[in-house]
Amino acid sequence: MYGETISDENRGRGSLLNRVKASILTRAADLAWRAVQAINTRLPEGELPNPKWAPGRIAKSRERSAPPLGFPRETDSLCPQCVPELRREIVEGHANVDIVLKENPGQLKAQLVEENGRILIRKTCEKHGAFEDVLSTYPAFTRRIESLFFGRDFSSIQDEKIHRHGASDIKYGRGTVLTVDLTNRCNMMCTPCFTDANQVGYVHEPDLEEIKAILDRAVSFKPRRQIIILFSGGEPTLSPHFLEAIAHAQKIGFYRILAATNGIRFAQSEEFTRQARAAGLHGTYLQFDGTSNEKNRHRGVKNLFDVKVQAIENMARVGMKTTLVTTVINTVNNDTLGSIVDFAIHNVDKVQTVVFQPVSFTGRDEGIDDESRSVRRYTLSQMAEDLKLQLNGALEPMRDWFPLSTYSAFTTVMDVLQGPDASWGWSACNCHPNCGVFTLLVVNRRTHEWIPLFDFFNYERFMRDVTAITDTARGKLLTEGQLALAILRNYRADKAPKGFPVSQIINLFRPTSAKADSDRNDRMKTRSQNDEWRVLCVEGMSFQDLWTYDFRRTEMCVIPYGTEEGEISFCAYNTGIGWRQIIENRHQSASVAEWYRKEGRHEIYAEGRTVELKTTAHDLILPVMNNSGNTVTGPPVDKK
């Protein structure tokens, strides 16, 4: 059904000489590592630097705090009925927003418990009664992910104008992605939609000076961090300031600028795509719910998969990279995860990441009834199990998945290597372990065979090695040497795919500290004719809603929204107290009626309408259906 995994007979079967060399190198690195650490652990530890971009000295592993983990445990949550009532009162002017900052209305205690093979969240409101929802259907998977949490990052300082949202404040971490909404208008009418685009009765569209101010504030406090800028909406390409906003973000010095998009404008106009790339756009987070028009039909557009394909092709032609973002709804499209990964594998030179997002019942879906919510609820643990099933058992939930926060162990090394005088700290993903997970697939770009990276690289031990390197703090030269040993000793040449050179595993885990925007596949490329190997990242991001809300997660958010009123956790903005509705209403540009009179109506594709495309010519490899109705991989589409 799907692209072939690399078989046992095709592992470790390069030339005998190369295999012997790789094995000797790995064993020698392991012996050298052990010898170095035998001395290292007997010497007094060095001091980690206090970089000028940071609010203090870089913390060692034992100095990092952690949220309460394990089950059972208690946390702070929200009542799913009190909060919408309160939000409505604030938006309509019957209550002051200060009540949210000072009195914590709607908050209540919640219990996280393991019961009958599931992890549940339970809470009781004195007014509205008891609520229960599912957080995990595979407790062993969730416990393992929590056990691998690396530790919290810095607390922020000089951020009084940035983080001022009461209990919704972000308290830890420098962040990974800063989302900036350019408009709440959209050219689609999706369900689900966490912004409730086109439906709120007003237009919120910041002018260029407001957008610039949001971006400028992002570097006004410590830690002064490199962070991905993600322009979003609504549909960000509808904003008249889209290209100028990209250019300003690049001028400030942000190393990677992306757009969260449905892809319609990129599919319809090669010229617009070129302009976006010239302005500084590196790529997109492309909404992508399945590998056929039928699997995307719940979005209301008849030919939406054709649109996605053309958008990917047009962006690839100008050097932009695509991340596929799939909202996963149980019983709607959870059966398509394997085919989406397979599509990415077969087009790995154009698609670098797949992100699965279990549906969050917020925005347009906040009023969902209990029965429908129970049927459609989806979790990260289900994602891991479904991908194992749909990819023929090749991805093991208990071996191949890690919390996104494990990236941060590596971030710390890079912070050390770039020295105390660096202007920026590296992007750090210290989110709560329940927020996100990832795995990496090594893909042969010619044969499309693939293998989980962590099947032949001991990532768990590598993270422990990296922690030992940073904790002992031996300076730049010894740190680089130890890092090279750690990479080599955790590589298993006997399990690696045929023809996979050990040099590429070094390139993958040893990016240059002078080029923070180096992409993992840029580092994997070689100049030889045997430039065959790429890495595909597969992630799961679990956003909260009012039933699953946990304040211990929002205070560690690494994907905040940049707004006119500071930076706010993704989940606190889109759900929680509902800062999106509060802020957009306070800063609205016009009522919808006023906007239409002044600016006219924008195009909306809904109710099965077809998006007009100038061309459907592309080089992507698409799935096709066989006589049994199963998805198989087809040849590249004929450009004719």
Number of H- or I-type helical stretches: 22
Percent helix: 25-40%
- Give a quick account of the main beta sheet: strands, pairing sense, barrel closure: 10 strands, mixed
Q: Approximately how much beta-strand content do the residues carry? A: 15-25%
For the termini, the CA-CA separation is: 27 Å
Large-scale geometry: globular
Structural class: alpha/beta
Number of strands: 20
Radius of gyration: 24 Å
Quote the average pLDDT. Answer: 90
Task: Please describe what this structure looks like.
The protein is an alpha/beta fold and 640 residues long. It is 33% helix and 17% strand. The protein is built from 22 helices and 20 strands. The strands form 5 sheets. Strands 5, 7, 8, 9, 10, 11, 12, 13, 14 and 15 form a 10-stranded mixed β-sheet that branches. A 4-stranded antiparallel β-sheet has the order 1-2-3-4. A hairpin with a 5-residue loop joins β19 and β20. α1 crosses α16.
